[in-house]
Amino acid sequence: MLPSTTLHRTTLILTLLLVIGLLFPFSPAQADTTPVPGVRAAAQLYGAVRYTALSDSTPDTGSEVYLGVPEITGASHRTESQVDWDSGPNTFSFTYTPYDPADPANPLKDRLVSVVANSTGTYTTVFAGFSSQVAKFMFGEDVAAARAALQTMNYFSFTLTFLKDSTGSISLDNLVLNGAPVGSYPAVFGSTVGYHMVDVNLGAGFTLTGELSVSGFTPGTRINDQHNKVQFNVGWIETGLPLVGSLLAAPDPAAPGETIELTGSVDDSSSGGSQISGAEYSLDGGAWTPMSAADGSFDSSLEAVVASLPAPVLAGDFTLCVRGLDASGNYSEPVCLTLSVVDTLGPLTSDFDWAAGSPQIGVPSSFTARVSDLTAGGANILSAEYSLDGGAWTPLSATDGTFDSPEEWVDGSFTVTDDTASYDLCLRGTDTLSNPGEALCINFSAVDNRGPVVSDIAWAGGSPLLGGMSTFRATVSDLPAGGADLSGAEFSIDGGAWLPLSAADGAFDRASEGVRGSFATSVVADSYQVCVRGTDIHANTGDAACATLFVLDTLGPTVSDFDWAAGSPQLGGLSTFTVQVDDSLTGSSNIVLIQYSLDNGASWSAATPLGVYASPVESATAAVIFAEAGSHAVCVRGSDSAGNTGEQECILFTLVEAQTRYFFPLINVLNP
């Protein structure tokens, strides 16, 4: 209820229109006396009572009641009225009393009366001679035709439009038509509320009552009829249902997803005579989808209709229904057929993905993909497989362990070892009906990001030289890491700087190369950590491979000093000498034995060490007797802890009876 202190005033325009129109295609299928959302926009005959430019303050000027479409401006076709609205619900009614042939002169019949009552008064507008006005506009003065048409009215609707002044409110309440409740309907700003009923008997007369509440509006000029208004429509529509026939779907049976051509006819010629305005189909209870007129336009009461639609993606039997719509908004009863879909398609492969990014040469490349028959018949997946570069098909595994559903994730792995520009990987699945699917092919390039591998680091040409340049060899290969040609190799000794290596054949031009390098070794037996690494033409440097190379002591000690204790050897008496043996320049192993031999004898005797043998340089002494005059020789040699016995060195001299003649220090190195 509105506050009692509020005075509501608005223009009451009572308009009776009689027009010929077409129904919109969204009209409901069956005639129904229950209010239904949405307005059936037109009828063969329909008239309106309208309250327009609603305001709760000073009303707009020029309020009127008129006939005709578009609006007639002639004064003879208007009845103007103005209503002062009070604070409470303002009751209204309008009543149509039809013409009575038995009482043609009765002024209370063949007229429309509108009444608004509130505390400010009762406002009545009478439009008399209804049939004659209808005749003027619709039948060319044929009043009898107008009266006959008015007797067939079976349609009622209303619209409540709220387009101006959002701070206000409009409410239409307690509507009753011929004693039957219609309901209450508040409006929301920026919208139109609409309801309609069909198959109501209005031709024998009717009365509509209700309450209209308006608040918060100021008067305003109407622009293109865009303003707040309430309009009640009555009229007639044809309610006969068209018929659907000659329904055919081809092909039938169809493959999953195959295009179906649906044809049929819609006929209203024997059930109302309205033009056909459309047709729709529904597959297995789904949404209704428009069809087309076979001749390009819906313009007669009998139309051939067509539609193209995809068959369901799952195999089975499906219900395909068609219904038609006539120009009066009447839908036919659906007519249905059974469409069979047979699974003749293999599963689809999609969603391919590398498990760890781009594949790498020489590294197992794992991948996943989806194999699905859900859109190709719905059979379970039986198997999946892949082929690399046109090679043999290799089985894939179901990610969940078992192929037992219409959709499976699969996974596989392979390793590419060639430095090839690109590869083709193809995947396909097969369903349990033995339908193989189309292969999904992926073109990819494997990334070579691994460096060459080094092996076989060893001395070249036997044992190295102590104190000289020693040569080693190695093999550098990219064959297990991409197969690219090598661009170079280098080595490091004992963690030192990296130095270049040479290709054994003179050039780095293959994926696998023998390499050589040299470095200076010490005069001391020792070990060296030799590390080698290679680089391929993709600038990938491999991990260094290292080996410990030993420089062994393979040389015996040398005799570095020899001395007779008494200056010269003696004839017939003891002659004592000392000898020094040195391994410091031939391996630096400790001396373990010093020996001597007289006159190139076949046997060697150990000299007596001067102390304990414990270093690479040691001395020993020995006493010998020369019993005969003549030429003699004393040969000495040393042995080291590495098992090497040095070359003998001999002292040559001559002894005589009277005196000793000798050659000293003449030292000859003889072969043993």
Describe the structure.
- By secondary structure, the protein is an all-beta fold.
- It is 3% helix and 46% strand.
- It has two helices and 46 strands.
- The strands form eleven sheets. Strands 7-6-5-12-9-10 form a six-stranded antiparallel beta sheet, with no helix packed on it.
- Strand 36 and strand 37 (545-551) form a beta hairpin.
- The longest helix is centred in the N-terminal third of the chain and has 10 residues, at 130-139.
- Residues 1-31, 60-74 and 660-672 have low confidence and may be disordered.
User: Strand pairing plus helix content: what structural class?
Assistant: mainly beta
Can you tell me the residue ranges where pLDDT is under 50 for at least 5 consecutive residues? Answer: 1-31, 60-74, 660-672
What percentage of residues falls in helices of 4 or more residues? under 10%
Count of individual beta strands: 46
The main sheet orders its strands as: 7-6-5-12-9-10
Mean pLDDT: 83
Beta-strand residue percentage: over 45%
What does the main sheet amount to? 6 strands, antiparallel
Radius of gyration: 59 Å
- How many helices does DSSP assign? 2
What sort of overall outline do the alpha carbons produce when their principal axes are compared? rod-shaped
Terminus-to-terminus distance:
141 Å
